[in-house]
UniProtKB/TrEMBL annotation:
InterPro entries: Ntn_hydrolases_N, Peptidase_T2. Residues 1-21 form the signal peptide. The lineage of its organism: Bacteria, Pseudomonadati, Pseudomonadota, Gammaproteobacteria, Cellvibrionales. Keywords: Coiled coil, Signal. The keyword Metal-binding does not apply. This is Isoaspartyl peptidase/L-asparaginase family protein. Residues 165-192 form a coiled coil. PANTHER family: L-ASPARAGINASE (PTHR10188), N(4)-(BETA-N-ACETYLGLUCOSAMINYL)-L-ASPARAGINASE (PTHR10188:SF6). Gene3D superfamilies: (Glycosyl)asparaginase. The keyword Transmembrane helix does not apply.
């Protein structure tokens, strides 16, 4: 969203009693992954299902903010809706590792305190974002991984679930196809890891995230994912890495990313966007757009971000064909979009 309110949004504020330009602004944006999303390959039913789930997550998070809840609570509430849907690559519906399991990553950051929590490679946690929050609030650490993270979860009274809970037919088919492709590459003498990284975007698409601004002026960001199909050796992407996949600071902005994690880590995408806002005085839209299109794309990194600042401005740039995304604020009605031209 631009810094200046377009006339149409102003008219909407005047016309709708639910849009309140007079009070402290509240805002939320969510994503459900970026990549090659072709309208021609999407059935109307599938498109409806995606839009419906994005709308549900957006409304769930927005309701928390409307009631005066904290931005961290809104972020968690929205992400939990997406984690429990098999449509997205987070929680149920997560992609499979090379060995045929699910390893989940998530993180959350509170822009008021700069407290953060993250979990990486967990297998038995129903809501990785809820555990990330527990790490932030109940441990002296920022990031916990694997079995240690699960032991911590149990110590906090969080039940462990069977890894099969995250199984879905369509993700299993993707793993089988990916393995065929990788085995072909290996027979031809190719580099296995390079081949995993070269898999097309549908093999990882569907990471979820949220950013929110609450009535007290605090912002927060969170991200949750199953990572990349056929990942091996405990590979961890950008989603649980603070500063890469997730970042929030009341002095600049809140960002949740989705895309080719290795690039997002090396280019510290989320922190770079907020640093440009803070130190260069760029608008949120300029900073986010530049990092995604001028820095990441020329380097070969595909994906996008949702970003929000303490004034309630929202930016959702991506350099792929599409990104599942939605936003709503006290001055902007709900917008849900999937494809580039919307
Ligand atoms: N960023 C995620 C990862 O690399 C995947 C995605 O967002 O598409 O694990």
């Amino acid at each position: 969203m631009k810094k200046m309110l377009p006339l149409i949004a102003l008219l909407a504020v005047v016309a709708s009693p639910s849009l309140r330009a007079d009070e402290a602004p509240i805002a939320i944006a969510i994503h459900g992954g970026a990549g090659t999303i072709e309208k021609s390959k999407m059935t109307p039913e599938r498109e409806k299902a995606y839009r419906g789930k994005l709308g549900e997550a957006l409304d769930t998070g927005y309701a928390v903010l409307e009631k005066g809840g904290a931005s961290t609570d809104a972020v968690i509430a929205a992400i939990r809706v997406l984690e429990s849907s098999p449509l997205f690559n987070a929680g149920r519906g997560a992609v499979y590792t090379y060995e045929g399991r699910h390893e989940l990553d998530a993180s959350i950051m509170d822009g008021e305190t700069r407290q953060a929590g993250a979990v990486a490679g967990v297998r038995r946690i129903e809501s990785p974002i809820a555990l990330a929050r527990m790490v932030m609030e109940k441990s002296p650490f920022v990031m916990l991984s694997g079995e240690g993270a699960e032991t911590f979860a149990r110590s906090q009274g969080m039940p462990l679930v069977d890894n099969a809970l995250f199984d879905t037919e369509h993700r299993l088919k993707q793993l089988q196809k990916a393995k065929e492709k990788l085995e072909r590459e290996s027979r031809e003498g190719g580099n296995h890891q390079a081949a995993v990284e070269a898999l097309p975007t549908p093999y990882r698409m569907g990471t979820v995230g949220a950013v929110a601004l609450d009535k007290r002026g605090n912002i927060a960001a969170g991200t949750s994912t199953g990572g990349m199909t056929a990942k091996r050796y405990g590979r961890i992407g950008d989603s649980p890495v603070i500063g890469s996949g997730t970042f929030a600071d009341n002095n600049s902005c809140a960002v949740s990313a989705t895309g080719h994690g290795e690039y997002f880590i090396r280019y510290t995408v989320a922190a770079d966007i907020c640093a440009r806002v803070r130190y260069r005085g760029e608008t949120l839209a300029e900073a986010a757009g530049e990092v995604i299109n001028q820095v990441l794309l020329p380097a070969g990194g595909t994906g996008g971000v949702i970003a929000l600042d303490p004034a309630g401005n929202i930016a959702m740039p991506f350099n792929t064909r599409g990104m599942y995304r939605a936003s709503r604020s006290s001055v902007q009605p709900a917008e849900i979009a999937i494809f580039k031209e919307e």
